[in-house]
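Our preliminary data section would be incomplete without showing what the modeling component actually yields. Below, a chain of 246 amino acids is followed by its predicted structure, encoded as C-alpha cells that our downstream tools consume directly.
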Amino acid sequence: MRFLVFGENCEDVFQYGSATRLDPAAPAPILVPQRRTVNSGMAGNVVTNLKSLGAEVVFYTQPNKITKTRFVDEKTNHLLMRLDIGDSETSPLAIDFIKSIDFNEFDCIVISDYCKGFLTYEAVEEICKKHNNVFIDTKKIINESFSNATFMKINSVEYASSKDSISKVKGLEDKLIVTTAKDGCTYKGKTYPVSRVEVKDHSGAGDTFLAALAFKYTEIKDIDLSITFANECATKVVSKRGVASI
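Predicted structure:
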C-alpha cells in the first residue's frame, strides 16, 4: 500500500543522565549525561510507524529543522526539561504545490498537523478534497475545513477545545475518534478500552495510533477492528522509553 503523509517533522532527542543533586545557586537539578537517543518525531514518527507496518510512504514536510530535546533522569525516567528549537521558522505549504500532486497514486492520505505553521486550514481543506481516504490528527480547532476527511483522531483535551466548532458542521462528530490515554478511545459513543500496562513514556503514542489506524483501515475497511489494532499498537509503544515505533 502507498501512503502520502503531510505534516511537520522534528528530531526527537532524549538526553538521559544522572540527576542526584541540585545546583547550589538555584533549585534546579544537575544532569550528568550518560546516553543520548535520536528519532524522527511528530509526522516523521507517523512515517516511521507506517514503514514498520510495511507501507510505502511519500512524505511532504517543512524544509527547516525542528529539534525537541528532552533531558531525562535515567534512574527515575522523570523529565527534567524540554528544549524546542526551530518551531517559529516554519513556512506554509503552498496550495499550488498540493494541486500539482497526483493523489490517485496513493491508497491513503495522512495529515499529521502539529500546528507549527506548515499546514494552513486552506491546505487541509484542499488535501481532503483530493482523496476519499484521508486520516487526520491535528492540534487545530476543528471546523468546516475538515468536513471531507474520512476520520480524525484527536485527544480528549483537543476535543474539548473544538466541541463548539464541531457541533456547527453536520456529520463532523461522526468522523471523530477521541483518544483518552489509559482509557483507550471513543468513537460514535462506543468505548474501545486498552490493556493495562506499565506506562514508561507517552511520547509518540498518538503518532503510532494514527499510523496503525490508517494502515489497518486502508487494508480491511473496518473501523472497529482498525481502532482495536491502533489501541494495541499504541499500548506497546507507551511501555517503552522515549519515542518508540511499532
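The first strand starts at residue 2 and ends at 7. The helical segments are 43-52, 95-99, 121-129, 156-167, 205-220, 223-238. Preliminary results of this kind motivate Aim 1 of the renewal.
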